[in-house]
Design brief:
Length: about 375
Amino acid sequence: MPYGRLSAFYFFYFATLGAFLPYWGLYLKGLGYSALEIGTVLALLSATKVVAPNILGWLADHSGRRITWIRWTCLLAAGLFLGIFEVHGYREMLLLTTAFGMFWSAALSQFEAVTLAHLGGNSRHYPWVRLWGSLGFIAAVLGLGFALERFAIGFLPQVLTVLLWLIWMVSLMVPEAKFRAHFTDSTPTWWPLLWRKEVIAFLLVVFLAQAAHGPYYVFYSIHLKALDYSGRWIGMLWTLGVVAEIVLFLLLPRLFHFLSPRALLLAGVGLGSVRWLAIGWYAHVFWVLLAAQVLHAATFAATHAAAMQLLPRYFGQAHQGKGQALYSSLSFGLGSMAGSYAAGMFWDQAGAPVVFAGAAVTCLLALSIALRWVWGYGALSQ
């Protein structure tokens, strides 16, 4: 398995996310954008994940040339983002976000499929590869957090530009997975698989779980800045969440021997309600904020790892690309879009406590659906 090359892609892809998520809202605020405009820009970026991964998933499944399509999307994303240096207004920012996001958003779900194909029957070792994405996120968020102590945030587009080109260069070194989907008369068709009630419930749960993250991804840094946390501390708090995520990823191969993916999914969405209430109402209490960031291991890592185990079982190898794309579209795409836009709509009028309380209620709804309809598989034995 090309462990180093797969890990490098995750490292730079999530380093880009680490530069983008915590600081893009601050960058737009520095340009004079309102809370609604900031929420709309980031919601639009999430909206591209609804369409783009599904198109690429279909192309990849039916051509068998998954890594080739990934390379093209990475190249186009890096090239289009260069337009950021010519953007002068809100409408231009929306146009650039749509164009760049269509290609950047498409790549990850198919790269996840490439990684799982290389892993084969050892999918429980996926977290050991994925943790390098967490390390990349940490490197970016910490480095930029310290840089903001000395420099204005206007340098952020240059950092993102470099990272996007590094993603493309690494993609050139990743080999195509040996597996190719073969469709036969006995292969289950897509639509009957999709409309099973446990699949619908699973997709609804991951949509709600990611929608609940919307206020966090868009306004967490702004929220902490308003409470007089420095750029250094903002970066360190983001980092703490990702460190907790890494620890869980490292433990997951062992945990999967006695914990089912369903148990992890329930823990992730259930603890999400606690985390969002803590951030919204008690962020001024430092130890509570620390504990809330540790819960990122549950709200993101556990939920995502559970989904990565359930997806192959729901859709099989023949529909792996489409299943992966659908998961990405409905959770990181439509879910993030809904959560980001709703947070932007109510942030100024209702305030942080109410917005994060809404996120907590969303998690409780996801938990009730998962308890009733998501299948409970036993512990993995391979």
